[in-house]
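Researcher: Let's try something more involved. This one mixes different molecule types, so please make sure each is placed in the same coordinate frame as the others.
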Amino acid sequence: MNLKTVDLRRSFSDFNLLVNFEAKEGELICLLGPSGCGKTTALQLIAGIQTPDSGRIYLGDRDITDLPPWKRNIGLVFQDYALFPHMSVEENIAYGLRQKGTAAETIHSRVKELLSLVRLQGYCRRKPHELSGGEKQRVALARAVAPSPSLLLLDEPLSALDARLRIKLRREIREIQQRIGLTTIYVTHDQEEALSISDRIIMMKDGEIQQIGTPQEMYNHPINSFVAKFIGNANLLPVSKRTEDRKYYFFRPDDTRLSTTPSAAADIFEKQMTIRSVEYAGSHYVVEGSDGESSLRAHLRQEPKTSISFGDAPGSSCWFQVEKTKLKLLSH
Amino acid sequence: MRNNSSRRWERPHPAFLSVFIILLFLFYIPIGGVLIRGFFPDSRLDLRLFADTVTSSYNLRIFWFTFLQAVLSTVFSLLLGLPGAFLLSNYTFPGKKLIRALSGVPFVLPPILVVLGFVIFFGNSGLLNNLLMKIFSLSEPPLSVLYSLKAIILAHGFYNFPIALRVVSSLWEQLPQNQQWAAQTLGAHRLKLFRTITLPQLLPAILAASALIFMFCFTSFAVILVLGGGPQYTTIEVEIYRLARTSLDIPAAGALSSAALFITLALLSVYIRLQNKLSFQQELSHRRNDLHTVHRPNFLGLSSIIIYIGIMLLIAAGPLIGVIVRSLQKPSSRAGKLFFSLDWYRSILSGDAGQFGMIALTAIRNSLIIGIAAAGTALILGTAVSYVTVRYRFRLANLIDTLSMAPMSVSSVILGLGYFLLLRSLPNLKGASLLLIIAAHAVIAYPFVVRTVSAVLKKISPNQLYAAMLLGAPPGKVFCSIEFPIILPALTAAAVFAFAISLGEINATLLFSSSIITIPLAIYRMIGSYNFFGACALGTLLIFVCVLVFSLLERAGGSEI
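Model: All components are placed in one shared frame. Result:
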């Protein structure tokens, strides 16, 4: 089913949330943003844990705004897993089905089916305190999905896990989601996560939606400097010295090259900077330069033959260059 | 456009309000009655009585003595408890767990048992004197401890040193080891380390423990009543009892109770502030992973441990052992030699119409009935209050929380006085007396239920409840399938705790009970009529029940006092 929020508002003393978006059926949409941007509040409004001040929420054809959480048929996976400590893995997963009054044998086979879906076969009898973080998360996912909800919500499900596990699990979540065809809203502050698994991304800041688009659109055509900085690495150069005039030139460090001499070509944009640091990142070198007011980065394959300025000693002066086709002008 | 239908589950069900109405009747009305008598002696507002009460030289002397014995008792309890805290926190030795467990026993014993034990052990013809006379071939008992300030302080020390020991050692054990090593690398030798690093961090625990012990000693009743033994050893609580039951001067008792209420409220606010500082310090220490390391004791340490255990056994275990021993003895004639006998227990079991057996059996029967009824009432009351204050967020939440915990700060003697006034104004109904005792015990016990159940309720994260809701369970179902199973162990522990409190309760019961006899009342009266052996038989039964309850609670993980 698709989900639609219309003018959904929630205000706190110093914070105002307004969200308007639609998640199409079978789509995985990411709510992305820094802490405090309102993404978890938006999720809790959709789940019914919080009540909006105004606005409507539609799931399929149903207006669910006034429904209590236990009638919405929505699954939610929490960041802290929220498994029931006194129940086994099987009982946890079966909980939603028990509330529906499903027959016992049906429950049992469904639990087994889900356990193999999340690759935890044989874990029926275990208790939550015997599980690792990743295993708990998979049980939480199975539990949320078991009663066949119309919508799945995930609230930063992987942030409590280490990096390797995160990458592995996010792929599994995406595969399961695609296999079931479940409309899913995934809240995260990790832009890499959002880029890798979403059909579309909703970027949020201070309670407002900044941009909605596919990962490629968000990466290549950010509509403002906030989105540009948040997703991937960004070079942002103010166009003019006047601070009220907040226009920026925007381009990616990956597209930036270094030269000791200025270029004469008309299709090259360049800026002269003093080299501040060179760091090795395995697949490339990160070269940072600054002119006292702004700084730029370039990702280079080869180690640049430059000297770095340190303290009062001057470093090399270089021209940071980018093709104008890769350059964008952002209005704020 | 705000809708309220999905918000309804954020506000408590109206049925919960009935709990607070019950509390109103069981607590606020009796206490109100006491205050009214103090300020409205002839049904008119007359502050002179209250003014006279707090300024009369007689009462001022009583205030002073109450304060003095509490201070001395607190110091003595610290002297007993702190060395133990040091030993437990810094050394590892065989039997450490046993010592720690035993150290909690004095605290769970009802005061009447403490009193009985002391009379048996430290009395002129008590066990200690008999032993010393035998060892040193004396003709006169060498120690005259009883019925003096000495006895009061000693008994209070016995009763309260576990608080000092446990509160301080539990914080000490959590002081991070890294700090000590850092200080040492910066040049601090051991004494300086203790003075500048350890002691300041232990201070919140020491102060909190002192405040709590002071409050217990300030409001102590049975110990002063029996072991003080004289008008010069009267405290506020004892005087209230005397005014109400002996002089029958109710207005004076009311006025004195009002003054006492104000003083204890002031003390309580000091304690709460200190307790908050302690919790803060505990939180600071708790986050770290490196705990205080313990070492095997050297010779000095080992001898300290042995000496300390010896003193603990003398003061803590001696009286209890005395009670048990005496219960198994019987004089051959009026003042004859003692010989081993199970007669007292046989008498209880058969309930023979001779004085002791029947009284004892009746007392046991009454105490069981009252205990179970009071525990059940306290459980329901306490769980409801717990649930409302922890689960729901609504505007009056803080107020309700304070109002419902008020019984904890009011002394049970004053509560007993309130019930005494209530009883006098009620028609002479047959079951009224019994119901009032059950009610009084329930009110006294229920704050402990609230604390126990709240602690566990808080551990259930809201997300777990939301998860259950989103899986299709409405709030009632969430409680039955998620919350209740998780808190069930705490409920059981709380019920057992409440039962034990009721079993040992003497303060309120002494104040207003006339015809119904409970085990503590029976022991008290037997002490008064010099039937020590019988009292010890009953006392031993009570000791075993309390120890059983205590070990059950320890097993359930109650490290909170």
